[in-house]
């Protein structure tokens, strides 16, 4: 389980007039226990929802308070936390670094005690699981946007994390690929925590968090959460 205890995230903001830097609150204080299998996080751009997501596997560390994953502290046990919590970015190009899909997935497996042959076999199996077996040797830049997002997901899932955190995983995809990725995420055995602007996806979660101005302003039932977010944004149903 992921637990946040009185977590505050701040940053320094330069004074445009040349004065002393200001401390800006990005998120918090937040206290949460995240145990449900499917959790959606919604909020306006700049509200702090991506900061919250990045706290969950130590990509962002709290300025004060603690984030713990199965009793591991993200500030002290970062490597162990990241073995348990995989992270999927909005733009797959932010995490794809190798020339071909099979090489990229194999790279994510280097931290496991596998031979190069075993990594290759495991990488190809991970690609096949997501329907990319016939794209294993294709240059990554030749893949479509949807295929690159599937490759990014394959690279994360290959290491078998217990939790998957997704930061707007379908924002850059067309309607067809959005449906493909949504179905794959819905069917995973892992706990999946998703930052999303897709309110239909949020409604399929078991729990919705609404973030506004760095604070959790709603936490609970998905239908009520989406209604709360629409009211906050003054969006008619």
From TrEMBL:
GO molecular-function term, one example from the UniProt record: ATPase-coupled transmembrane transporter activity
Keyword ATP-binding belongs to the record: yes
Protein keywords: ATP-binding, Nucleotide-binding, Transport
Pfam families: ABC_tran
GO CC term (a single one): ATP-binding cassette (ABC) transporter complex
Entry keyword Metal-binding: no
Domain of life: Bacteria
PANTHER family linked: ENERGY-COUPLING FACTOR TRANSPORTER ATP-BINDING PROTEIN ECFA1 (PTHR43553:SF24), HEAVY METAL TRANSPORTER (PTHR43553)
Family note: Belongs to the ABC transporter superfamily.
Protein name: ABC transporter ATP-binding protein
Organism for this UniProt entry: Cellulomonas humilata
């Amino acid at each position: 389980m992921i637990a946040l205890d009185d977590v505050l995230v701040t940053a320094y903001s330069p004074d445009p007039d040349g004065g002393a830097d200001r401390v800006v609150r990005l998120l918090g204080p937040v206290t949460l226990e995240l145990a449900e299998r499917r959790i959606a996080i919604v909020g306006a751009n700049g509200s702090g929802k991506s900061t919250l997501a990045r706290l969950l596997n130590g990509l962002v560390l709290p300025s004060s308070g603690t984030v713990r994953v199965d009793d591991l502290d993200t500030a002290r046990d970062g490597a162990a936390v990241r073995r348990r919590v995989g992270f999927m970015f909005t733009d797959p190009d932010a995490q794809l670094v190798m020339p071909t899909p099979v090489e990229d997935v194999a790279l994510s497996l280097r931290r496991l005690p596998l031979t190069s042959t075993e990594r290759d076999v495991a990488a190809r199996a991970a690609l096949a699981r997501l329907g990319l077996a016939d794209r294993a040797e294709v240059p990554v830049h030749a893949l479509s946007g949807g295929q690159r997002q599937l490759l990014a997901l394959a690279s994360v899932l290959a290491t078998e994390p217990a939790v998957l955190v997704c930061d707007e995983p379908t924002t850059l995809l067309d309607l067809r690929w959005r449906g493909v990725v949504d179905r794959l995420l819905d069917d995973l055995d892992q706990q999946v925590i998703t930052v999303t602007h897709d309110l239909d996806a949020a409604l399929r979660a078991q729990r919705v968090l609404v973030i506004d101005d760095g604070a959790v302003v709603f936490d609970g039932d998905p239908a009520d959460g989406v209604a709360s977010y629409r009211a906050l944004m003054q969006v008619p149903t």
